[in-house]
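2024-03-11 09:14:02 DEBUG pipeline.ingest accepted 1 chain
2024-03-11 09:14:02 DEBUG pipeline.ingest length=134
2024-03-11 09:14:03 DEBUG pipeline.predict start
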Amino acid sequence: MLQFNLITPEKTLISQNAEMVVIPGKEGDFGVMEGHMPLISTIRPGVLEIYEGEKVLESIFISSGFAEAGGDKLTVLAHEAIPVKDIILEDARAKLKDAEEKLVALEEKHPDRHHFEVKVVIAETMIRIKESRN
């Protein structure tokens, strides 16, 4: 078994054994099991899934962060992590609308522009994931 820890700036969300965890890496999804070679990867907005056998025990939306794997440990440091079942579609749509409005109001070279572009991608991803799982 793999010792899996999911940590956000606020708290440790998960600290448990898992057979496999699939992570939304920047270069694509990847799975980690016990004995995985050492690696560090950045995370894109997407769903992290915890497996036991072929069954998904839990699906968690991750906005961004880093994953570090090696041997029998996996640690994911996430900026935001929400169980997919707890995503409220109306809230995600409100976040998208707010970020899009702020983005439109900013000039092309404004230093905050990238921040709101990222917020748009995160909200769009949350909406797509929630809609696809309803």
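2024-03-11 09:14:41 DEBUG pipeline.report The first helix runs from residue 89 to 105.
2024-03-11 09:14:41 DEBUG pipeline.predict end
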